[in-house]
Amino acid sequence: MIGEQILVPRRFALVRYPNGDDGRVVIGWGIELPDGSAVSLSLDSQAVALCSRAAHCERIHGGELVWIDGEIGDLEKERSP
To answer: Is the dihedral of CA 59, 61, 64, 69 positive or negative?
Structure first.
């Protein structure tokens, strides 16, 4: 374990714009795992998703993905020159 880099899951919210205005409503939460897959849960606990990518979770929940921990996660930092 010494010298190994620990990658922390990146958090996201799933939101909708119910009135077509700027007011968004959170409908779920999730995390992107170090391998790029993601797990999400709707606020009403009616839908849990395990996806190959975080973007797929927004399709399942019918919302828009908003990163809580920033746009660039550990995976992207690791791949950047």
So the answer is: negative
pTM for this structure?
0.74
Q: How many CA atoms lie within 13 A of 36 on its CB side?
A: 7
Rounded to the nearest angstrom, the gap between the alpha carbon of residue 7 and the centroid of all alpha carbons in its chain is 15
Torsion, CA 64, CA 53, CA 80, CA 10, rounded to 10: 70
> Which positions ≥6 away from 48 have C-beta within 8 Å?
39, 40, 41, 42
pLDDT in tens, 3-20: 567 678 899 999 998 877
What count of residues does the chain have? Answer: 81
Q: Spell out a b/e string for 17-56, using b for 16 or more CB atoms within 10 Å of the CB, else e.
A: eeeeeeeeeebbbbbbbeeeebbbbbeeeebebebeebeb
Contact at 8 Å (CB) between 65 and 1?
no
